Amino acid sequence: MISHLTGTVAAIGATYVVLDVNGFGMRTLCTPATAASVRLDATSTLHTSMVVREDSMTLYGFASADERDLFELVQSASGIGPKIAQAVVSVMSPDDFRAAIASENLVALCKVPGIGRKGAQKMVIELKDKVNALGAVTAPTPSGAGAAQWREQVSEGLQGLGWSAKDAEAACDNVAHLVDEDPGVGIAVLMRQALVSLARK
Prior knowledge:
Elements: E1 4-12, E2 16-21, E3 24-29, H1 32-37, E4 43-53, E5 56-62, H2 65-75, H3 82-91, H4 94-102, H5 106-109, H6 117-133, H7 147-160, H8 165-181, H9 187-199
Antiparallel strand pairs: 1-2, 1-4, 2-3, 4-5
């Protein structure tokens, strides 16, 4: 498995980069942002993932190892191939994706071309534990120093669903008692109860 390449940029397209690695031209498919970040004749490093099919071997290149890991993680969800995985990396940063999975933010996930509501729900179910296992997102313990963290995650999740910052903060106030009663309460529970409180408005 080729995990990264370092070479001279020999060609750039809208969605690909060719690196000359000691005279060997390696073409990698990239997001538009990655392709735009390199310069012709300059030395560059791309973190890579190879997708092998019966009739092809395709190398995908990314600006960071984090983006590559996200690309590979997304494909572990059923029904998700490299095309949609590449779209995820194009539309969302790794941190944005992790936050969306952790907070079950379907609206954010549905912004990715090719992902509908059902697909987003399936992705949350199948990837939540995998994301946690990778250390990308850990279930916060909302007590002591972690108190601000749960508020931030819930507030951002609500704003991602279209609520105003003011409404999101009010909803956080409404569920704060749950944290006092059980410091180990999960973000998903807090999000659901926050949404319930907003629905009563």
